[in-house]
Amino acid sequence: MAEKQKKKLEVVQTLDSDESCQTFVLHDEDHTLGNALRYMIMKNPDVDFCGYSVPHPSEHKINLRIQSRGPPAADILRRGLTELNALCEHVQNTFEGAVEEYKMNQAMQQSTDNTEPMETG
């Protein structure tokens, strides 16, 4: 029998239906995503508050709370994830470019070292 697949993201339902103020649970995540995502979301001028917590060190999930000045919190979360993804792609591309440049410089340095005449004394 197949194991029930756990949802990666849940919305904590509250009694009031204010979509601008919601708590999300992200499963199988920790401070690595929590702090980066909180930072990206807080840069949004429509956000009043964004914070996260790890309920317990043995639980691999984070609770992310978003309060906005009007737009739905789900839209704010989506935008934050999109911007964080774009930032991570930029960092990866920059890093990979720097590694390639380093390798090319090392190869050129080695070929230059191999073609220099040896001194005889």
TrEMBL record:
Keyword check for Cell membrane, yes or no. no
| The gene coding this protein | LOC118419484
Q: Where is it located?
A: Nucleus
**UniProt xrefs under PROSITE patterns:** RNA_POL_L_13KD
Instruction: List where this protein forms a coiled coil.
Output: none
What is the name of the protein in this document? Answer: DNA-directed RNA polymerases I and III subunit RPAC2
- What does the similarity note say? Belongs to the archaeal Rpo11/eukaryotic RPB11/RPC19 RNA polymerase subunit family.
The species this protein belongs to is Branchiostoma floridae
Instruction: Indicate where this protein is primarily found.
Output: nucleus
Q: List, alphabetically, the InterPro entries matched.
A: RBP11-like (IPR036603), RBP11-like_dimer (IPR009025), RNA_pol_Rpb11_13-16kDa_CS (IPR008193), RNAP_AC19 (IPR033898), Rpo11-like (IPR022905)
Tell me which GO cellular component terms the UniProt record holds. Answer: RNA polymerase I complex; RNA polymerase III complex
Residues annotated as domain DNA-directed RNA polymerase RBP11-like dimerisation: 22-93
The biological process GO terms on file are:
transcription by RNA polymerase III; transcription elongation by RNA polymerase I
Q: Please provide, alphabetically and separated by semicolons, the GO molecular function terms listed in this UniProt record.
A: DNA binding; DNA-directed RNA polymerase activity; protein dimerization activity
Supply the alphabetized keyword list: DNA-directed RNA polymerase, Nucleus, Transcription
